[in-house]
Amino acid sequence: MASPGGNAMSSWRWTVVHLELGRHWTGGAQQVLLLAEGLQRKAVPTWLVCPKETPLARRAQRCGLPVLSLPWRDEMNPLSWLRLGQWLRHLNPPPLLHLHSRRGLVGACVLARALRIPLVVHWRTITPMPPLVLQVADAIIAISDAAAQRVRAQDGARWKVVVIRDAVDASLWTPFPDAQNLARQRWHLRDTDFVAAAVGRLIPDKGYDCAIDASAKLPPEERPILLLAGEGPQERALRRRAIELGVDEWVRWLGFQDEVRWVLWAADVFIHPSRKEGLSCAILEAMAAGLPVIAASVGGVPEVVQHGITGWLVPSDDPAALAEALRLLRGDEPLRHRLSENAQRFVREHHNPDQLVTATLSVYERLASALTAP
């Protein structure tokens, strides 16, 4: 089968339909957009299906990607699935459905089986995969070795699983010469401030309560200013915790930021105290921005944050260890510089968008060969 590069659209067997039912601008949503753009550049017929009025839908439309937006109030909305099924029946070339999150797993499996179309499932978590998905999915893409190992341990899954790591366009995150000064002006920070950035949904799994506790364990003169970019259901509890521990004046609650790189460029270090993580796009972006990363050693994180080489690992749920790592990096500028250089080189070499697109196309092509074999 001909490769779908260059002007090979006429030889490409399917229309790749990316299905993402999340409503927030997450790392997974960023990867969907990055992959869809890359496929479109290679002349692969590509569509994105997502709920109406989501950040992903708006960004995809601005990038010129074809988008089908449906009124998904919840993932089991039967009318939206019916409309999607009717639309898929009329696609030419016929559809390959690529589901990118746990939302919509059951609906995607039912639809793929009913229409007899191939289904690829992107698995971003360190959790077991539902048996129905194992039966119906033709291929499973795990974002890390840790995520793949969890799925491969299940019956009937080993041969379907391939690891394709998330990507980051380093050129968009590399700071220009005066970036830190301009970024600090945005957040009213001084040149002498030691600043730690954290980016993500404010939910318990992300461990931001641990970051606040770590700040409280440091004396005031050693506390970093924490730029916390994100929103979510835990925000009120986190604000209350910071006040109770007397560290609220060291935390800047930035809310959702459309341009996260300005948050990263203002910082000296990046912290990611997550309790559960398949990988982490936020970590990759921080590394591309040249920040030394302090991260909890969970899931697939140690596959990118190599302790003492591309970053610094601490145990999960250990505020004392996080506080000690912050103290260490604050006092050791050569170490910060070395981690920064290694991290930038690592993401350029191992997590670039071309690798993501090429590896995913290989999955599609192997699937085409298997499904057309006599």
Task: Itemize the secondary structure elements and their pairings.
Layout: E1 15-19, H1 27-41, E2 46-51, H2 55-62, E3 67-70, H3 78-89, E4 95-99, H4 105-115, E5 119-123, H5 131-136, E6 139-142, H6 145-152, E7 161-163, H7 170-173, H8 179-186, E8 195-199, H9 208-217, E9 225-229, H10 235-244, E10 251-255, H11 260-265, E11 269-272, H12 281-288, E12 293-296, E13 312-314, H13 319-331, H14 333-350, H15 353-372
Parallel strand pairs: 1-2, 1-4, 2-3, 4-5, 5-6, 6-7, 8-9, 8-11, 9-10, 11-12, 12-13
Task: Describe it.
- The protein has 374 residues and is of the alpha/beta class.
- It folds into 2 domains: 8-167 and 352-372, Glycogen Phosphorylase B (Rossmann fold), CATH 3.40.50.2000; 170-350, Glycogen Phosphorylase B (Rossmann fold, 3-Layer(aba) Sandwich).
- The chain has helices at residues 27-41, 55-62, 78-89, 105-115, 131-136, 145-152, 170-173, 179-186, 208-217, 235-244, 260-265, 281-288, 319-331, 333-350, 353-372; strands at residues 15-19, 46-51, 67-70, 95-99, 119-123, 139-142, 161-163, 195-199, 225-229, 251-255, 269-272, 293-296, 312-314.
- Mean pLDDT is 92; it is low at 1-10.
Percent helix, as a range, is: 40-55%
| CATH architecture term of the largest domain | 3-Layer(aba) Sandwich
Strand order in the largest sheet: 3-2-1-4-5-6-7
CATH topology title of the largest domain: Rossmann fold
Number of domains: 2
User: What does the radius of gyration come to?
Assistant: 21 Å
Summed up, the helix count is 15
Q: CATH homologous superfamily of the largest domain - what is it? A: Glycogen Phosphorylase B
| SSE string, helices as H and strands as E | EHEHEHEHEHEHEHHEHEHEHEHEEHHH
What's the pLDDT, averaged over the residues?
92
Distance between the termini: 15 Å
How many DSSP E strands?
13
